[in-house]
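Protein Record: Sequence and Backbone Structure Tokens
======================================================
Scope: a single protein chain, as residues and as a discrete description of its fold.
Tokens: labelled as protein backbone structure tokens, with as many entries as the chain has residues.
Position: the record begins directly beneath this header, with no further notes in between.
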Amino acid sequence: MLRIIGTETEYGIIARSPHLPDPVANSLRLIAQCPGLPAPDALWDYENENPFWDARGYRVEGEPERPGPHYNRQLNKILPNAGRLYVDGAHPEYSTPECSNPREALIYERAGDQIVADCLTQLNNSLGSDEFLVYRNNSDGKGNSFGYHENYLLPRRIAFDRLATVLLPFFVTRQIFCGAGKVGAENGTDPVSFQLSQRADFFECLLDLNTMVGRPIINTRDEPHARQAEYRRLHVIVGDANMAEISTFLKIGTTAIVMEMLEQEGTFPSLDLSDPVRAIKQVSRDLTFKGSLDLNNGRHTTAIEVQREYLHAAHRFYTTRECSPITKDILIRWESVLDTLERDPRLLRRELDWVAKYDLITSYRDRRGCQWDDPRVAMMDLQYHDIRPSKSLYATLERTGKIERLTHDEEITRARSSAPTQTRAFFRGACLKKFPRQIYGMSWTSVLFDTGNQSIKRIPLLDPYRGTQQLTTELFQDIETVDQLISRLTT
């Protein structure tokens, strides 16, 4: 499996003191503590960014963000792994570099959590107290939701209408294995004690460009961060920010398989949900997985059966095609999880976030005799997502061997300081290591060098599959200056 994948995680930040009420200022304080930046004064290059183009063929009103140099440096930190730590809206946000497969994306997500946790430690140490708290979750419990986004590169020849038709039933139902678990309900939805997904309550339409209000199940942003005529980037906002590695791996991995099938014109099940917006909330509230989902043709199905049909389509697709080890692993885990969900979901407490959280809280309630609306239960819901390893309930499960891992600590440590090798991120990372003092700015699609005499040279990176370690090893050999690098690139 070789597919350009990246994720973005918005973190919840809380200040204990009532004198620090501004989440934007607090987020800036947090990322200002980022350690080990190779080019701390580098700008983020917004030249090729425009989030106002809609994949349905038009541009909405609005001006792209273009902060001045000083504020740009405050907002953006370019990481040694070629990822980005920044403030978006009222949240600190981490973007992985471009990864080449779902497992690599998982590793770089975990590296981002560690980077943010280090920022938090340094910030609190500078204040002499645990003033700030940071959570990898999607809701503050007061009606506000913040996002987690997946990004998949696809050929532009795939019609967006085709994408939407295929993906709606898949996105509505995949939460059965990639929901992060949530106590209660929000956004004016029907009350519930516990549900699968933190995000489901906040989706209000099928397709739209917006990500913060009137959220759509399928986001229509047309900002490829690549050659516009050749590529499109599917910007997925419907997922939870998972803690459990298998939930993350299946979330990204099954979606990557669907992307591969779309690109290679595979055959998909015909499943037209009569009301996807209602169905996504219905699935989130159904811990028995027996609830009936209405289809437009008058038939009925269940969330598990929808996922089974996509799984069976994937099996048929790969019977005549090469199947990588990572793809095989995803297919095996996908089938096993669906079988176990149907038999007894609590057997997945070592694998899936929502099951692990539900099991923790249920055990606590049984011991304490408290109800779902007890404040201690709400605190456990939040504490599961604390990014401090010493305080996180998830980290406790991991540390005591009660939840399964797919990655190794050494891989995560390496991912903090080194870029992926099979995407253009490697070139950006190599530039940061070789010429940190000459980096003026950077983006997904560019490296800007300060070549002296008030001259800035932009190196475009519009093909995400170029700039890999294999393609650039000789490029960086035996050179000492930026001018030599530019000379090689232009000859």
